[in-house]
Write a structure and sequence with these properties.
The complex is a heterodimer of chains A (132) and B (126). Chain A is mainly α. Chain A is 76% helix and 0% strand. Chain A has a single domain, classed as Fumarate reductase/succinate dehydrogenase, transmembrane subunit (3 helical TM bundles of succinate and fumarate reductases), CATH 1.20.1300.10. The model of chain A has no long low-confidence stretch (mean pLDDT 88). Chain B has one domain: Fumarate reductase/succinate dehydrogenase, transmembrane subunit (3 helical TM bundles of succinate and fumarate reductases, Up-down Bundle), CATH 1.20.1300.10. Chain B has 6 helices and no strands. Classes of the chains: A mainly alpha (132), B mainly alpha (126). The interface between A and B is large, with 43 and 45 residues.
Chain lengths: 132, 126
Amino acid sequence: MAGPGRGDPRPLSPHLQIWKWHWTMAGSIFHRVSGVGLYGGAFLIGAWLISLATGPEAYALVEVIAFSLPGQILLFLWSMAVLYHLANGLRHLIWDGPMVGFNPGVASLWSMFNFAFAIIGAAVIWSLASFY
Amino acid sequence: MTTSAKSVRGLGSAGTGTQHHIRQRVTALALIFLVPWFLYSIIHACKAGYEGALIWVAQPINAILLILTLSAALYHMRLGMQEVIEDYIAKSGSRQALLILNTFAVIALINPGCAAHERAWFTAGA
């Protein structure tokens, strides 16, 4: 009997609309969203380094884009994504290593903390960066 | 009735999940230390203009840490994006194409850091 071939569709992960929104699922989804965002951000860091390698004119162009309003908004979102992915990544390591934080109450609070850390942390970094 | 081997081969566990998981965690461990350094120094480098950024990237300690950050981050990125592609892209052709593109993109992104270091050292030596 011929079985399914290699190209046959396999079960996929459930998509977003399956889930009821709550803190821990938002925390998990934003880990992936911020990760994909940072993948894009790596190309921006690449562009910055290439402009540095190319010369002063190319670097000046990148500076103009980075210091424009859309550029600043994008960089702020990038820094928020870095901090969120870092905080929630640490949480993944704590889940895998010492295996603590699975209690529903703690898990929800921890998700809220990670969001707050990303938003407040990015705001603090940006105010420090603009003062010093 | 048993399933014939040829109908399940290539469809089940590929046997590489544990390795993927461990590598994702090991690169994450490195990034806990490298990312805060990177945030701190990229802000300093960006505020100093072209000359300042070039001086920053020319210093051996920054060059080493930048290469370590890029290597760990790119490896971590490749594993993460591979997981996203495998989760959501069902069609075999597009899935394979995206997985190959993922590898190419990450390897291409190693080069900007090297190019910046070469420029900085060439300029410093001139």
